[in-house]
Write a structure and sequence with these properties.
270 residues; alpha+beta; N-terminal domain of MutM-like DNA repair proteins; Helicase, Ruva Protein, domain 3; 2 domains; four-stranded antiparallel sheet; 7 helices; 21% strand; DNA-binding
Length: 270
DNA sequence: CAGCGTGTTGAGGA
DNA sequence: TTCCTCAACACGCT
Protein backbone atom coordinates (compact mmCIF):
# COMPACT_ATOMS: atom_id res chain seq x y z
CA UNK A 1 0.00 0.00 0.00
CA UNK A 2 2.12 2.79 1.23
CA UNK A 3 4.22 5.46 -0.30
CA UNK A 4 4.14 8.93 1.20
CA UNK A 5 0.76 10.05 -0.23
CA UNK A 6 -0.94 6.88 1.03
CA UNK A 7 0.60 7.26 4.47
CA UNK A 8 -0.56 10.87 4.62
CA UNK A 9 -4.04 9.81 3.53
CA UNK A 10 -4.17 7.14 6.22
CA UNK A 11 -3.12 9.71 8.83
CA UNK A 12 -5.82 12.12 7.71
CA UNK A 13 -8.52 9.51 8.14
CA UNK A 14 -7.09 8.13 11.35
CA UNK A 15 -7.49 11.63 12.78
CA UNK A 16 -11.14 11.56 11.76
CA UNK A 17 -11.66 8.08 13.12
CA UNK A 18 -9.79 7.93 16.43
CA UNK A 19 -8.45 11.34 17.45
CA UNK A 20 -9.26 12.21 21.08
CA UNK A 21 -10.36 8.68 21.87
CA UNK A 22 -9.20 7.06 25.07
CA UNK A 23 -7.64 3.62 24.75
CA UNK A 24 -9.47 1.34 27.12
CA UNK A 25 -7.63 -1.78 26.11
CA UNK A 26 -5.29 -3.10 23.48
CA UNK A 27 -5.05 -6.65 22.22
CA UNK A 28 -1.76 -7.87 20.81
CA UNK A 29 -2.26 -11.06 18.86
CA UNK A 30 1.17 -11.08 17.25
CA UNK A 31 3.79 -9.81 19.73
CA UNK A 32 6.66 -9.71 17.25
CA UNK A 33 5.03 -6.69 15.57
CA UNK A 34 6.09 -4.61 18.62
CA UNK A 35 9.77 -4.00 17.96
CA UNK A 36 11.53 -2.01 20.64
CA UNK A 37 9.76 -2.98 23.84
CA UNK A 38 8.23 -6.05 25.45
CA UNK A 39 4.62 -6.34 24.32
CA UNK A 40 3.27 -6.60 27.87
CA UNK A 41 5.11 -3.43 28.82
CA UNK A 42 3.77 -1.79 25.65
CA UNK A 43 0.25 -2.72 26.62
CA UNK A 44 0.70 -1.50 30.18
CA UNK A 45 1.92 1.94 29.04
CA UNK A 46 -0.59 2.46 26.22
CA UNK A 47 -3.66 1.39 28.17
CA UNK A 48 -5.63 4.38 29.46
CA UNK A 49 -3.85 6.93 27.24
CA UNK A 50 -5.69 9.29 24.93
CA UNK A 51 -4.79 9.70 21.25
CA UNK A 52 -4.05 13.41 20.88
CA UNK A 53 -3.27 13.41 17.17
CA UNK A 54 -1.88 11.33 14.35
CA UNK A 55 0.68 12.53 11.83
CA UNK A 56 3.41 11.17 9.60
CA UNK A 57 7.18 11.47 9.54
CA UNK A 58 8.23 10.08 6.21
CA UNK A 59 6.41 6.79 5.82
CA UNK A 60 6.09 6.39 9.59
CA UNK A 61 2.73 7.00 11.24
CA UNK A 62 3.04 8.69 14.62
CA UNK A 63 0.30 8.37 17.24
CA UNK A 64 0.81 11.10 19.80
CA UNK A 65 -0.50 9.78 23.12
CA UNK A 66 -0.46 11.25 26.63
CA UNK A 67 2.62 11.71 28.75
CA UNK A 68 5.23 12.19 26.12
CA UNK A 69 4.80 8.82 24.51
CA UNK A 70 4.56 8.19 20.77
CA UNK A 71 3.46 5.03 19.02
CA UNK A 72 5.22 4.65 15.67
CA UNK A 73 3.67 2.43 13.05
CA UNK A 74 5.18 1.42 9.73
CA UNK A 75 2.82 -0.27 7.28
CA UNK A 76 5.61 -1.76 5.15
CA UNK A 77 3.96 -3.54 2.21
CA UNK A 78 0.57 -4.71 3.39
CA UNK A 79 -0.20 -3.17 6.76
CA UNK A 80 -3.54 -1.39 7.05
CA UNK A 81 -5.85 0.10 9.63
CA UNK A 82 -9.57 -0.57 9.71
CA UNK A 83 -12.21 0.70 12.08
CA UNK A 84 -14.93 -1.76 11.09
CA UNK A 85 -15.30 -5.50 11.10
CA UNK A 86 -16.87 -5.89 7.70
CA UNK A 87 -14.75 -7.31 4.90
CA UNK A 88 -11.78 -8.22 7.04
CA UNK A 89 -9.86 -11.41 7.40
CA UNK A 90 -9.67 -11.60 11.21
CA UNK A 91 -6.77 -14.00 10.87
CA UNK A 92 -4.52 -11.02 10.10
CA UNK A 93 -5.77 -8.61 12.77
CA UNK A 94 -2.59 -8.45 14.82
CA UNK A 95 -3.23 -5.41 17.01
CA UNK A 96 -6.65 -4.22 18.17
CA UNK A 97 -7.29 -0.94 19.99
CA UNK A 98 -10.46 -0.89 22.02
CA UNK A 99 -11.63 2.63 22.89
CA UNK A 100 -13.68 3.87 25.76
CA UNK A 101 -16.59 4.71 23.43
CA UNK A 102 -16.73 1.00 22.50
CA UNK A 103 -15.31 1.50 18.99
CA UNK A 104 -12.25 -0.41 17.79
CA UNK A 105 -9.29 0.13 15.52
CA UNK A 106 -7.76 -2.91 13.86
CA UNK A 107 -4.22 -3.20 12.53
CA UNK A 108 -4.33 -5.86 9.84
CA UNK A 109 -1.28 -7.15 7.97
CA UNK A 110 -1.35 -10.36 5.97
CA UNK A 111 2.41 -10.43 5.49
CA UNK A 112 3.33 -9.48 9.06
CA UNK A 113 5.97 -7.02 7.85
CA UNK A 114 4.44 -3.99 9.55
CA UNK A 115 6.01 -2.69 12.78
CA UNK A 116 5.11 -0.85 15.98
CA UNK A 117 7.55 1.08 18.18
CA UNK A 118 6.88 2.92 21.43
CA UNK A 119 9.08 5.98 22.02
CA UNK A 120 9.34 8.32 24.98
CA UNK A 121 10.49 11.92 24.85
CA UNK A 122 12.50 13.27 21.96
CA UNK A 123 11.23 10.81 19.39
CA UNK A 124 12.67 12.58 16.33
CA UNK A 125 16.18 12.08 17.65
CA UNK A 126 15.79 8.41 18.42
CA UNK A 127 15.89 5.48 16.08
CA UNK A 128 14.19 4.83 13.75
CA UNK A 129 13.15 8.42 12.95
CA UNK A 130 16.59 9.86 13.60
CA UNK A 131 17.92 7.96 10.59
CA UNK A 132 15.55 9.52 8.09
CA UNK A 133 16.41 11.98 5.35
CA UNK A 134 14.27 14.90 4.22
CA UNK A 135 11.08 15.36 2.27
CA UNK A 136 11.64 16.48 -1.31
CA UNK A 137 10.24 20.00 -0.82
CA UNK A 138 12.55 20.63 2.15
CA UNK A 139 15.66 19.32 0.48
CA UNK A 140 18.45 21.66 -0.54
CA UNK A 141 19.67 20.55 -3.94
CA UNK A 142 23.32 21.28 -3.10
CA UNK A 143 23.08 19.10 -0.01
CA UNK A 144 21.62 16.28 -2.11
CA UNK A 145 24.28 16.68 -4.77
CA UNK A 146 26.99 16.50 -2.14
CA UNK A 147 25.35 13.47 -0.58
CA UNK A 148 25.30 11.61 -3.90
CA UNK A 149 28.73 12.74 -5.04
CA UNK A 150 30.47 9.64 -3.71
CA UNK A 151 27.77 7.16 -4.65
CA UNK A 152 28.08 5.00 -7.71
CA UNK A 153 24.92 3.01 -7.05
CA UNK A 154 22.01 3.54 -9.48
CA UNK A 155 20.14 6.83 -9.01
CA UNK A 156 16.97 4.82 -8.61
CA UNK A 157 18.41 2.99 -5.61
CA UNK A 158 19.55 6.28 -4.01
CA UNK A 159 16.13 7.85 -4.46
CA UNK A 160 14.55 4.88 -2.68
CA UNK A 161 16.94 5.22 0.25
CA UNK A 162 14.94 6.78 3.10
CA UNK A 163 18.15 7.98 4.76
CA UNK A 164 18.52 10.40 1.85
CA UNK A 165 14.97 11.37 0.85
CA UNK A 166 11.84 10.19 2.60
CA UNK A 167 8.62 9.27 0.89
CA UNK A 168 9.50 7.93 -2.53
CA UNK A 169 8.76 4.26 -3.06
CA UNK A 170 9.25 1.99 -6.02
CA UNK A 171 6.16 3.12 -7.90
CA UNK A 172 6.81 6.86 -7.79
CA UNK A 173 10.54 6.50 -8.38
CA UNK A 174 9.76 4.70 -11.61
CA UNK A 175 7.38 7.52 -12.53
CA UNK A 176 9.73 10.36 -11.57
CA UNK A 177 12.63 8.93 -13.57
CA UNK A 178 10.38 8.45 -16.58
CA UNK A 179 9.12 12.04 -16.37
CA UNK A 180 12.67 13.36 -16.05
CA UNK A 181 13.97 11.06 -18.83
CA UNK A 182 16.70 9.60 -16.66
CA UNK A 183 17.94 6.03 -17.05
CA UNK A 184 17.33 4.31 -13.68
CA UNK A 185 20.80 2.75 -13.52
CA UNK A 186 22.68 6.00 -14.08
CA UNK A 187 25.33 6.20 -11.32
CA UNK A 188 24.09 8.60 -8.65
CA UNK A 189 27.20 10.76 -8.86
CA UNK A 190 26.64 11.43 -12.55
CA UNK A 191 23.31 13.16 -12.01
CA UNK A 192 23.71 16.91 -12.41
CA UNK A 193 22.48 19.55 -9.99
CA UNK A 194 20.06 20.68 -12.65
CA UNK A 195 18.63 17.17 -12.93
CA UNK A 196 18.45 16.81 -9.15
CA UNK A 197 16.54 20.06 -8.94
CA UNK A 198 13.97 18.72 -11.36
CA UNK A 199 13.85 15.33 -9.61
CA UNK A 200 13.01 17.08 -6.33
CA UNK A 201 10.35 19.24 -7.91
CA UNK A 202 8.76 16.35 -9.79
CA UNK A 203 8.85 14.11 -6.72
CA UNK A 204 7.08 16.73 -4.70
CA UNK A 205 4.51 17.39 -7.42
CA UNK A 206 3.72 13.74 -8.11
CA UNK A 207 3.24 12.99 -4.42
CA UNK A 208 1.06 16.06 -3.92
CA UNK A 209 -1.02 15.08 -6.92
CA UNK A 210 -1.40 11.55 -5.62
CA UNK A 211 -2.33 12.78 -2.16
CA UNK A 212 -5.03 15.05 -3.55
CA UNK A 213 -6.28 12.34 -5.87
CA UNK A 214 -6.48 9.90 -2.98
CA UNK A 215 -8.29 12.46 -0.94
CA UNK A 216 -10.86 13.23 -3.59
CA UNK A 217 -11.68 9.74 -4.80
CA UNK A 218 -12.05 7.77 -1.58
CA UNK A 219 -13.95 8.25 1.61
CA UNK A 220 -12.78 7.52 5.10
CA UNK A 221 -14.31 4.09 5.08
CA UNK A 222 -12.27 3.12 2.04
CA UNK A 223 -9.10 4.83 3.22
CA UNK A 224 -9.04 2.78 6.36
CA UNK A 225 -10.14 -0.38 4.72
CA UNK A 226 -8.66 -0.78 1.29
CA UNK A 227 -5.98 0.38 -1.10
CA UNK A 228 -8.43 0.94 -3.93
CA UNK A 229 -8.25 3.96 -6.15
CA UNK A 230 -4.97 5.41 -5.00
CA UNK A 231 -2.54 4.43 -7.70
CA UNK A 232 -4.29 3.76 -10.98
CA UNK A 233 -5.21 6.34 -13.58
CA UNK A 234 -2.10 8.43 -13.78
CA UNK A 235 0.80 6.00 -13.85
CA UNK A 236 2.94 6.22 -16.97
CA UNK A 237 5.41 3.35 -16.61
CA UNK A 238 4.92 1.38 -13.42
CA UNK A 239 3.33 -2.00 -14.30
CA UNK A 240 3.19 -0.94 -17.97
CA UNK A 241 5.58 -3.61 -19.29
CA UNK A 242 5.19 -4.17 -23.06
CA UNK A 243 2.71 -1.29 -23.39
CA UNK A 244 3.67 1.69 -25.53
CA UNK A 245 5.40 4.62 -23.86
CA UNK A 246 2.83 7.39 -23.71
CA UNK A 247 5.48 9.85 -24.92
CA UNK A 248 7.28 8.05 -27.76
CA UNK A 249 5.28 4.82 -28.33
CA UNK A 250 8.31 2.60 -27.70
CA UNK A 251 7.61 -0.54 -25.66
CA UNK A 252 8.05 -0.07 -21.90
CA UNK A 253 10.68 -2.46 -20.56
CA UNK A 254 11.15 -4.05 -17.17
CA UNK A 255 14.45 -4.92 -15.54
CA UNK A 256 15.88 -5.42 -12.07
CA UNK A 257 17.69 -2.56 -10.39
CA UNK A 258 18.86 -3.05 -6.83
CA UNK A 259 16.55 -6.03 -6.48
CA UNK A 260 13.43 -4.06 -7.37
CA UNK A 261 11.22 -4.26 -10.45
CA UNK A 262 12.05 -1.27 -12.63
CA UNK A 263 9.91 -0.05 -15.51
CA UNK A 264 11.35 2.37 -18.02
CA UNK A 265 11.44 3.52 -21.63
CA UNK A 266 14.86 2.83 -23.09
CA UNK A 267 14.29 5.37 -25.84
CA UNK A 268 13.21 8.29 -23.63
CA UNK A 269 15.39 7.56 -20.62
CA UNK A 270 19.06 7.91 -21.45
C1' DC B 1 3.25 -25.02 -9.34
C1' DA B 2 6.52 -21.22 -9.66
C1' DG B 3 7.35 -16.46 -9.65
C1' DC B 4 6.49 -11.98 -8.06
C1' DG B 5 5.90 -7.92 -4.83
C1' DT B 6 3.91 -1.02 -2.80
C1' DG B 7 9.52 -1.63 2.26
C1' DT B 8 13.35 -2.07 5.24
C1' DT B 9 17.18 -4.25 7.76
C1' DG B 10 21.16 -6.77 8.63
C1' DA B 11 24.78 -9.98 7.27
C1' DG B 12 28.61 -10.38 4.75
C1' DG B 13 31.77 -9.37 0.95
C1' DA B 14 34.81 -6.08 -1.44
C1' DT C 1 35.65 2.12 7.67
C1' DT C 2 32.65 2.68 3.91
C1' DC C 3 30.11 1.10 0.11
C1' DC C 4 27.26 -2.14 -1.91
C1' DT C 5 24.45 -6.42 -2.86
C1' DC C 6 21.30 -9.61 -1.60
C1' DA C 7 18.54 -12.58 1.29
C1' DA C 8 15.05 -12.53 4.58
C1' DC C 9 10.65 -11.36 6.50
C1' DA C 10 5.26 -14.21 5.11
C1' DC C 11 1.48 -14.47 2.37
C1' DG C 12 -1.74 -13.77 -1.48
C1' DC C 13 -2.11 -13.23 -6.20
C1' DT C 14 -1.19 -14.33 -11.14
Amino acid sequence: MPELPEVRTVCRYLNKAVKNKKIKNIYINLPKIIKNIDHNKFKEIVKGKKILKIFNVGKWIVFDIDNDYKILVHLRLEGKFRNILKGQNPKHDHIIFNFEDKTNLYFNDSRQFGTFHLLKGDYLNQKPLSLLGKEAQNTDVNWLHQKLSKKRIPIKTSLLDQKILVGLGNIYVNEVLWIEKIEPETPSNQITIKQLKKILKTSYEIMEKSYKLGGSTIDSYVALNSKEGLFQNFLNVHTKKDLPCSRCKEKILKKWVGGRGTYYCFKCQK
